[in-house]
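Please check our next protein.
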Amino acid sequence: MWDSLCGWPRAGSIPAEAGSRGRARTTSTWSGDHSPGRGEQAGNPLCLIGDSGTGKSHLLIGLGTAIAEAGGRVRYTTAANLVNELAEAASDKQLGRTIKKYGRVDLLCLDELGYVKLDRHGAELLFQIFTEREERHAIAIASNRPFTEWDQTFTDKRLCQAIVDRLTFEAHIIETGTQSFRLASTTAKRKAAAA
């Protein structure tokens, strides 16, 4: 589904990190039926892992836009914004309602996971979102840290392991690399202007 909606080449190969449960995919193998949120892989996560400037947010936004244009319900937010929204909902005694709201969308795009260190309470709130969505609706995350460094974001080791477990089970894990497109573009422009 994703390749046809996003316009990716069907036979093209996507570089991937082969995690313990993740596996390399070609765009043609990451599919189900063509209805948003349906098909055999509707609840499978997508994890985009790579350094800053490697296109993770761009891919999330493009994927979310394609799914929305196909009639799917999509929500895009950063991890920090989501945790803040959940904490506010908890203090207003609206946490259950907020979790259900995020549980109903066909695709949740969660950007910048790993940029901000989360305390135990914030990690527990985020974990509830992952549990609500698990194997029912897709989640796509972008992180600048490999899974081996997520204990720097999620300080409770058991909770960190549970989160990684939820996000990597039957996941499509794509490594976007280490070379920043923004830096390369700026460098090329400066060279062109100097010539």
Observations:
- Residues 1-41 have pLDDT under 50 and may be disordered.
